[in-house]
Target: NADP-dependent malic enzyme
Amino acid sequence: NACKCAQLDLSQCMVGQIVLGATGQAISRLISHYTGRPVLGADPKEAARELFRRRGGIPSTQEEILRQADIVVATTGIPNLIRPEQVRPGQIILALSNPQPEIRPALALERGAAFAADGGSVNNVLGFPGILKGALDAKARKLNLSMYLAAAQALAELAPQGELVPNPLDPRVHRAVAQAVARSAMETGVARVHLDEDYFLP
Model:
């Protein structure tokens, strides 16, 4: 949805992930799975960079990511890490650390970002209930990237025009995510039961 707001095609974008902890690695793998393209990744720890490289990512630096990436995702936990002058016009900046982001969205937008959001815009309460319900309903042997991607796409489709994500209090949200995850579990062969079409009715 950030790409829609910025009129960018995610499949054609260069994405950069700043800091490759568990969250950063997971975000990078999901994006790469969706786009079929490697993600740039920066981290001060050599072990994190090496794991990222083994998983198909391209180790880089924060400076290079801010220069090259169309979409910058930061999960560093360091407030104000991204300087306003580092923002390129037309970039998408997702500074997701809480309670303070790497750069305030308003400041990134002032510097020409096409779209900017912080950790307050995205909450895992949107995904977890539906992901777990869908996996349990399908009696999935495991959770895979396709199931997570199905959840993300369901959330994107339910977001109001111009918004990044839907309202977590919208009763349709968790059901739609559960249905998408269960269907993906069946399609990818990890479901241990076959759910009939009644399960997937709105």
